[in-house]
Amino acid sequence: MTRYFLAASCAALIAAAPALAHYGMIIPDDPMISQEDGRSVALTMSFSHPFELDGMVLDRPVAFSVTHEGRTTDLLGGLQDATVMQDKGYTLDYPLERPGTYVFAMEPQPYWEPAEDAFIIHYTKTYVTAYGDDEGWDTELGLKTEIVPLSKPFGLWEHNVFQGIVKLDGAPVPYAEVEVEFFNDGAGATVPDELMITQTVKADANGVFTYAPPSHGWWGFAALNTADYTLPQEGADKAVELGAVIWVHFEDWTGQ
Amino acid sequence: MIRALAVLALAVVAPTGVAAHQLVVFASVDCEAVTVEVKFSNGRIAQKGDVRVLDGENSLLMTLPLGRDGTARVPLDRVDHSGGLVIEVGTGSHDNYWIVTPEDIAQKCGS
Description:
The structure holds two protein chains of two kinds.
Chain A: H1 2-16, E1 23-28, E2 32-33, E3 40-49, E4 54-56, E5 63-68, E6 71-74, E7 80-84, E8 87-95, E9 100-107, E10 111-113, E11 118-130, E12 145-149, E13 156-157, E14 162-168, E15 171-172, E16 177-182, E17 198-202, E18 208-211, E19 217-233, E20 236-251
Parallel strand pairs in A: 2-11, 11-20, 13-20
Antiparallel strand pairs in A: 1-3, 3-4, 3-8, 5-6, 5-9, 7-8, 9-11, 10-11, 12-14, 14-15, 14-18, 16-17, 16-19, 19-20
Chain B: H1 2-12, E1 23-29, E2 33-40, E3 50-55, E4 60-65, E5 71-75, E6 85-90, E7 95-100, H2 102-109
Antiparallel strand pairs in B: 1-2, 2-5, 3-4, 3-6, 6-7
């Protein structure tokens, strides 16, 4: 009886509070826009558990911008309210005037997560290349924290490795922990164990991490660090989790 | 329209084999002219080449040399651009194209 009760209690607790990873998301309709695709890119912004397709509220971000050829443009005013994964998100159609790499970046408002007794701020970015020109694919934006790509963050085959440097305040983070999760949109991926929903790799002493995904699709990389400041919540100072998030699309291998 | 012109362009521009770096051709419109910019995918400016301008019916309208700065200028009043333009660029070992659609021109000319 006691054993049954404990098992049932544990199952209920696990079901109620699984350790799901949070991800800020900027997902374009296509990470490589050719001239045949048109002259713009359609972006969808959200905050979610991407494997479970479980949306959370993304309040209007603090900042949303695009950087192209070294120039950063504020796009915050252009965000359109949208429902993404049954929750509050945004969309934006952005005209691509010239070739090159466009880096879209979002700084969300601090998200209070009671289950973790902490705030979460995920600095999120996605790289889009236009018209066959990939110049700028390794652009570093100088965000509070970010993953600077060492592999081109687009145009990768499935099973290729993606490498990046985790930076915080502009400096590499030795042995940073990087969570990796698949955007399970329409893919129907399942896991043999909840541990497989979010995979984790560590950076090396230079802050460099490596990951090879098992399939094509969008994969999110989130390097997590704790801020050197706190934020108030109901009269108490609470820790702030800073996430450096980058979304990378891997292409379906077409060979034999 | 873009896709239709692309099919035409693909038929016109036969691939010349895979090169280690590709030619990147881009053209912008300012209502008076089409400005063609050409560089290699490694960022290096293409300094020599031929620019061929075709209309939407695949007829050659003009050929002009690529400048040493990797650009060429096609005055709109010298070509029939009503059906769009296909800008082909060949450097000898590399070639590529850019499609200027009627919508591209209309947007820039405010019509």
